């Protein structure tokens, strides 16, 4: 039931979270820990299906896992000790000592999902519209639900964002990221040796590929059971975006084609293109069973709060993956929201402060991602 909006915001708010991926789960867990009553509405019918990709496990993600007694971050992360740049022929051009910590989307999602109670996580429950002033949401499986606060953690194609800010559209950056994951057990010893312990890059004239080890499909971190994750940023190379993003069923996708859904000619052409990569990367791409592709785009919103509705994570700002910060930003948005609600006198003050702080951060991150990507893909 909705509560008196003028009362202090410290505890007991009824919060409806739309979207049960990373942003929704970080928010649900952080708000529950602060004494609020979050319920997550996720439109997918069952557990979310992983795309299997890697994630940079930034410090704030690891802290979140530890602080909320979810899991020892060591148990679901891998490390590299060196950032290494290869020449086209595969020699090491430059190596810099640097520790990076990685995890996989599926390992992290599983831990967060297990930490949030089933009875407060509704599946097959799409939020179809919100009334921000009344903090009311229409949910596909119910008539209407009123809360004290609505948080839309609906990802880059958020319908709540479209409703609140119809002009805030994702802007295609004119290049894509081909991605893939290979089981360590399926790699040759030479390939494991080439990538083990390093965050490896090859920078071409209009392409950039990188690789790092991530935990195995069940979160295993020991050598032999991990997976090697690669991300290959490439221009369209004279192709139409539609040609790449029409999947095996003939459906034109807007932003990504999932593992196993690329059309054969698209896959073949990208394999041919891999001949321009250093040999270790060429083999890695060729040996990947189910590569996938996602469009690189930028997204900003004018504000993250409209009355009693918030946009959080990718629903608000999408920064290019070069920043390695998409999931960390969702975690940061969530903890900052819980902190603001705990430290401010009223919900309105808390939301205004959170909006200022996190919108500034999101906007700066998007700018940084644009600069990094355009430089690396030679698009300036
Ligand atoms: C299944 C899946 C796999 C992913 N795999 C990877 C990966 O391997 N590597 C990587 O770097 N990033 C991956 N991502 C993206 C990554 O999670 C995000 O970029 C980042 O973590 C921010 O998360 P988010 O929760 O804001 O958005 P998202 O992760 O995009 O989640 C949005 C969620 O909201 C739900 N939703 C959308 N609209 C509604 C609605 N109206 N009502 C109810 N629910 C709604 C969606 O079904 C989805 O679960 C994946 C996302 C998903 C959904």
Helix and strand arrangement:
Blueprint: E1 14-18, H1 22-33, E2 37-41, E3 54-56, H2 59-67, E4 78-86, E5 92-104, H3 105-114, E6 121-122, E7 127-131, E8 136-139, E9 145-146, E10 149-152, H4 159-164, E11 171-183, H5 189-195, E12 198-203, E13 207-214, E14 227-235, H6 241-245, E15 256-257, H7 264-273, H8 279-286, E16 292-298, E17 305-306, E18 309-311, H9 326-343, H10 347-376
Parallel strand pairs: 1-2, 1-10, 2-6, 4-12, 10-18
Antiparallel strand pairs: 3-5, 4-5, 7-8, 8-9, 11-14, 11-16, 12-13, 13-14, 15-16, 17-18
Helix pairs in contact: 1-3, 1-9, 2-9, 9-10
The structure holds flavin-adenine dinucleotide (FAD).
Largest sheet features: 9 strands, mixed
How many domains? The number is: 2
User: Helical region count?
Assistant: 10
Small molecules bound in the structure, each named once:
flavin-adenine dinucleotide
N-to-C CA distance: 52 Å
* Uncertain regions spanning at least 5 consecutive residues: none
User: CATH class of the largest domain, please?
Assistant: Alpha Beta
Strand content: 25-35%
Number of strands: 18
> What is Rg?
21 Å
**The named CATH superfamily of the largest domain:** FAD/NAD(P)-binding domain
Overall geometric form: globular
CATH architecture of the largest domain: 3-Layer(bba) Sandwich
Binned, the helix content reads 25-40%
Question: How are strands sequenced across the largest beta sheet?
Answer: 3-5-4-12-13-14-11-16-15
Order of helices and strands, N to C? EHEEHEEHEEEEEHEHEEEHEHHEEEHH
Structural class: alpha/beta
Mean pLDDT: 94
The CATH topology annotation of the largest domain reads as FAD/NAD(P)-binding domain
InterPro entries: DHP_3-monooxygenase, DhpH_subs-bd, FAD/NAD-bd_sf
Protein name: 2,6-dihydroxypyridine 3-monooxygenase substrate binding domain-containing protein
Pfam families: FAD_binding-like
Organism: Halorubrum coriense DSM 10284
């Amino acid at each position: 039931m909705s509560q008196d909006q003028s009362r202090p915001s410290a505890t007991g708010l009824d919060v409806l979270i739309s979207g049960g991926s990373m942003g929704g789960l970080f928010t649900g867990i952080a708000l529950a820990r602060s004494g609020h009553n979050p319920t997550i509405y996720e439109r997918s019918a069952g557990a979310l299906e992983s795309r299997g990709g890697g994630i940079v496990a930034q410090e704030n993600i690891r802290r979140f896992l530890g602080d909320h007694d979810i899991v020892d971050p060591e148990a679901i992360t891998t490390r590299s000790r060196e950032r290494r740049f290869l020449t086209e022929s595969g020699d090491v051009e430059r190596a810099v000592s640097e520790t990076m910590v990685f995890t996989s989307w599926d390992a992290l999602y599983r831990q967060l999902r297990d930490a949030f109670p089933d009875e407060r996580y509704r599946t097959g429950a799409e939020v179809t519209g919100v009334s921000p002033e009344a903090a009311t949401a229409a949910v596909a499986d119910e008539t209407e639900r009123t809360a004290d606060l609505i948080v839309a953690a609906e990802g880059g194609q958020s319908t709540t964002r479209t409703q609140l800010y119809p002009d805030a559209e994702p802007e295609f950056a004119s290049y894509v990221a081909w991605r893939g994951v290979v089981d360590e057990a399926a790699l040759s010893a030479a390939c494991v040796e080439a990538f083990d312990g390093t965050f490896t890059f090859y920078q071409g004239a209009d392409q950039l590929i990188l690789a790092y080890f991530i935990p195995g499909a069940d979160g295993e971190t020991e050598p032999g059971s991990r997976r090697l994750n690669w991300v290959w940023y490439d221009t369209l190379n004279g192709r139409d975006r539609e040609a790449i993003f029409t999947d095996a069923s003939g459906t034109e996708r807007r932003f990504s084609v999932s593992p196993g859904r690329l059309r054969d000619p698209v896959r073949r052409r990208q394999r041919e293109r891999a001949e321009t990569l250093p040999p270790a990367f060429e083999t890695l791409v060729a040996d990947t069973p189910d590569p996938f592709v996602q469009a690189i785009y930028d997204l900003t919103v004018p504000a993250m709060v409209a009355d009693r509705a918030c946009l959080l994570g990718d629903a608000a700002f999408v920064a290019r993956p070069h920043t390695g910060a998409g999931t960390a930003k969702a975690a940061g948005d969530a903890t900052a929201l819980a902190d603001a609600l705990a430290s401010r006198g009223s919900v309105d003050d808390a939301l205004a402060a959170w909006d200022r702080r996190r919108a500034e951060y999101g906007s700066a991150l998007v700018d940084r991602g644009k600069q990094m990507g355009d430089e690396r893909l030679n698009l300036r």
